[in-house]
Amino acid sequence: MADGNFNTKILPPGGFASGLRTGEARMKQRAQKSFHEVLCNCPQLTAAEIETLERRFNELLAL
User: Fold this and answer.
1) pLDDT digits (tens, 9 = 90+) for 18-37
2) 8 Å CB contact between 58 and 32
3) In this structure, what is the dihedral angle of CA atoms 22, 26, 31, 33, given to the nearest 10 degrees?
4) φ, ψ at 27 (rounded to 5°)
């Protein structure tokens, strides 16, 4: 690599982009789970309100 050329054959299979997508999906799942736990610990919220807030949260994550 001293000449500036990069041999892609030495990279592991799977690609960098798929690893990024996997990481993003995991973080999204963690965020959804954490948000659900926070909402469930609010005694003043009804099940319908929790569902509405979770749906809105998921919409915002998809942006």
Assistant:
1) 778 888 999 999 999 999 99
2) yes
3) 140
4) -65, -35
CA distance 56 to 50: 10
Pairwise CA distance, residues 44 & 57, whole Å: 19
5 touches 35 (CB < 8 A): no
Spatial separation of the C-alpha atoms in residues 2 and 18, rounded to whole Å: 28
Contact 54, 35 (CB under 8 A): yes
25: Cα within 13 Å, side-chain hemisphere: 6
CA separation for the pair 54, 34 (Å, rounded): 11
**The one-letter amino acid at 5:** N
The answer to whether residue 2 scores a pLDDT higher than 60 is no
